[in-house]
Structures are given as C-alpha cells and as structure tokens.
Amino acid sequence: RLKVFDFTYGSEPYKLSWSNQKTDLYEFLKFNNFRGLVYYLLQKVILLIKSNNFLKKYIGYLYNQYKNFS
Question: Are 30 and 36 in contact, with CB atoms under 8 Å apart?
Fold first, then answer.
C-alpha cells in the first residue's frame, strides 16, 4: 500500500485534486554534473557552519587571523 506520493515542487492545480494533504517543501537541490555536486556539498557545509555557533566563531577567528596576517 502506498503511504506517500511525492509530486515534487510546484503548485499546479491538478495536485490539489490528486491529494488530500499538503506538505511544504523548504529546500530542493538537484545536481546533474560534477559542478552541481560540488555546489551542493558547499551549500551543505555553509548551512552546517551557520547552524553551529562553535564553527561560526571558529571560522570567524580563522578569517580574522588571515586578515591580520596579510
């Protein structure tokens, strides 16, 4: 028995008549080549840094050390 069928992103009218529940999609990334994969991984690293206060402070510290060294 099928529990969930994903119509992917978009708000086409036919989706309303084919479903009885709405689920919001907050992020959709698709990569078709190696550059896309690198971009995807970079986005994940940036999200990890932004969501972790220790990493955010440490990256800021490293950046200031680099800036003062130049």
Answer: yes
